Amino acid sequence: MNGEATAAPEYLAAHLCERLAEADIAELGVRVEVRGGSVLVWGPVPDAACRDTVLRLAAEALDPLPWRHDLSVVGTGAPDHGEDLS
Question: For the whole model, what pTM was predicted?
Answer without folding.
Answer: 0.77
